[in-house]
Amino acid sequence: xxxxxxxxxxxxxxxxxxxxxxxxxxxxxxxxxxxxxxxxxxxxxxxxxxxxxxxxxxxxxxxxxxxxxxxxxxxxxxxxxxxxxxxxxxxxxxxxxxxxxxxxxxxxxxxxxxxxxxxxxxxxxxxxxxxxxxxxxxxxxxxxxxxxxxxxxxxxxxxxxxxxxxxxxxxxxxxxxxxxxxxxxxxxxxxxxxxxxxxxxxxxxxxxxxxxxxxxxxxxxxxxxxxxxxxxxxxxxxxxxxxxxxxxxxxxxxxxxxxxxxxxxxxxxxxxxxxxxxxxxxxxxxxxxxxxxxxxxxxxxxxxxxxxxxxxxxxxxxxxxxxxxxxxxxxxxxxxxxxx
Length: 340
Known about the structure:
- The chain is of the alpha/beta class.
- The chain is built from 14 helices and 14 strands.
């Protein structure tokens, strides 16, 4: 017995003597220490992420980055936007160059499970569409048999397009470009019969160029393209902050809390609104944030509906209908999980 007692004592002493393994700090800790959220965004896509002549960024994706900053710092302007191409975006997140990727990126199994990254929600439901010159007379996808189609490299669109036309015994000639800007130049310059991309991106390309009179988006969609923010896999603390920021914006719309009335809503007797705005504590502590984190988001950025309408909806040049991006209470898919 004494022998085993000695072995046990030696084992305990050895464990105590082992050097402590340094834990990697969460992105939330890094962001707080740095004083800034670094977001990877599109190089330029009207309605989602586009800088103006003064370099000020605006768009649906930009608003989500700003909302995370408001949640963490109480200041939506503590952000840095890094424009990334389709090929650069995931590597930039994996390497730690950015804290989160919000670049109209489709959520797929391979991306979520195989790249060391993880999606944090869906901020826009989209589908892959096709654009053609009106003078071509093309009205349906089946009429593109034998056509040359412009497509951007490093996107899900290449595979989707090839699968769609092959399964219908239709022949196409893909013309692949390294960037969306080169693709746009080629298509609008007449080098392709059609162009394919997310339907919202096609609408943005037309609206920002004021070319609706000469080109049209075909009505058929060939894929599901749920777009949303990504963070690095394994950082659950940061994942929760980004995910619940998005849900908070949706919940605020559902409860009718807006930029204009958020201060008045602080007087609400609705327990869910009180919890949402931090009058009843708990949510902030759970996320490692101030209890007014959601109040700051709504006051400075707005709820999801406000962001949608301002950037891509009827108050924007894109004039997109809510459709699938409406709240679940209005026939859409936007369903915030309970903030309690």
